[in-house]
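> tool_call: predict_assembly(chains=four)
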Amino acid sequence: MEFNKTLTCAHCSKESPVFCFLNERQIDHIERNRIEVVFNPGETIMKGGTPKTHVMSFYKGLAKVSLEGKGGRSYILGFIRPQTFFSGPGFFFDEKHRLTITAIEECKLCLIEKDVFYEMMEENFKMAFAFMENSNRFILNLIHKMETFLIKHHHGRVADALLHLSKDIYHKNPFTMTISRKDLADLTALPKESVSRILHEFIKDQIITMENNEVHILKEDTLKHISHKG
Amino acid sequence: MEFNKTLTCAHCSKESPVFCFLNERQIDHIERNRIEVVFNPGETIMKGGTPKTHVMSFYKGLAKVSLEGKGGRSYILGFIRPQTFFSGPGFFFDEKHRLTITAIEECKLCLIEKDVFYEMMEENFKMAFAFMENSNRFILNLIHKMETFLIKHHHGRVADALLHLSKDIYHKNPFTMTISRKDLADLTALPKESVSRILHEFIKDQIITMENNEVHILKEDTLKHISHKG
DNA sequence: AAAATAAATTGACATATGTCAATCCGTTTT
DNA sequence: AAAACGGATTGACATATGTCAATTTATTTT
């Protein structure tokens, strides 16, 4: 964790899905009320169960959003990529984080006090709506996530995860998996051994290649088919 | 489905988590722009995939909210009980219902045009906030639901479902299950045969009794334990 | 570079779980 | 009341899947 202001709200806010609606006065207000932080891989950005004191504007890196389930298991509900605004689900509901956010690649982000954000939302309707739309996006992701959890055959879940990583997270096809096998296991709600095996089968069947976490999806359609048939 | 106005917004809005913030003029506005409908058990109130044209104020009955998954399976994400406001997830995002709502017991509800609702939200900030809080509640439910899906042992899922039904849905302990075994299966994401078997074991172990869908939870703590250990 | 540590893979095994089919029960229909 | 229907239960069975332990590979440390 490092502290050092290298960003400016004037610049970042343009890219933010929520803060892009702020007026100059408000931009200045968060500029004076933000904390800029860098997290290294593995570090916990927000811990489920702790008090919710800040909202987050994610500027750089890759982080995972996970739900800590019973018996020490944890389940990855999604990833955070720049630019993202994140308040945690249940912003209007209670004062606790439900989810844990952990840095996977080095992350740079700003924290803004909850009350400061709340104030601004009250006086800026456009932003309030953007906030709602942003929350909506999160729910829809959750619902999709839920669908994938309900895929019966585990091959389907891994197939889905690979497609998701390539398309939505790394945005390329031969991509370098910066997430661990354990993460891939938590993402699919499978034991890591199963993930290994299934990955191996995909390689054997020439659906993907993988060398040193460099994954290349050869037969996207086959993966899609595997994921769809369940 | 029957049409016949027997309710008044002036009365109902007092109980609504969202409409309770409306002023007289606005109450009058929805009074003139609402459709009152009665659905019989089994009827589809909203169908996933169809255009999202109205929001719903749920006045009476019991309905299930489900996600239609791959291969004709469907999964119950939750139930709707009066008084509930329901817009469907992703209200600000797109024009499609993601979830299907089906009446279990006879349901009476009002439909209000999306645009009418939108207008009112724009001019009434308090209501907008109530709407957000309401959405938040839905997300938190989803997250909890997700946790239960991830319970490893299936006994745990059934235990959790029984507790949920008794505590949150029927609000009593010896309760009459108005939902079918198939629904219970969809609620736990299990095949209905498994549900039957597990229920039978619970009865055998004297954790519950069940006669003609009259369920009595005898050992709540045991159920909780089964659900928690996963 | 060698040693130590952690991560990932593989193998073997028991069993929890899904599927199919047959039976049972309750409800409705004529 | 008998027949017909749908829902729920039970039984039998194959197998997909999780677990544990051992091995290999990769990564970090000294």
